[in-house]
Amino acid sequence: xxxxxxxxxxxxxxxxxxxxxxxxxxxxxxxxxxxxxxxxxxxxxxxxxxxxxxxxxxxxxxxxxxxxxxxxxxxxxxxxxxxxxxxxxxxxxxxxxxxxxxxxxxxxxxxxxxxxxxxxxxxxxxxxxxxxxxxxxxxxxxxxxxxxxx
Length: 150
Prior knowledge:
mainly alpha
């Protein structure tokens, strides 16, 4: 019995390994999502070097875009690891939501931000903050409540 009065059940060793890998991949996602903020700023400052040159502006944001693709790959890996570890329902639901936010919502908002209204660009940034929080919560949860084998 654990200190909080709940009985712990032993889990298979491979599930514990998936949970440990999950934790470190979540940390990588957190670090890269924080880096994403800096890459966005770098893109804006780079685009300002040649205002009106659309090709230059697109190139300035390329590192931000590539890192975003890496992040939705990380979210997909976390989804698979969460399903394998079966630590709790949040270890697969939150990565699924992160994947959807990264793969679909972020691209839609950035396109609308440049094409329709800068308020969609604002929502792109707010969505980015939610993504950072999601990766941070996943890492913190696995640090606080790791699976243990027998």
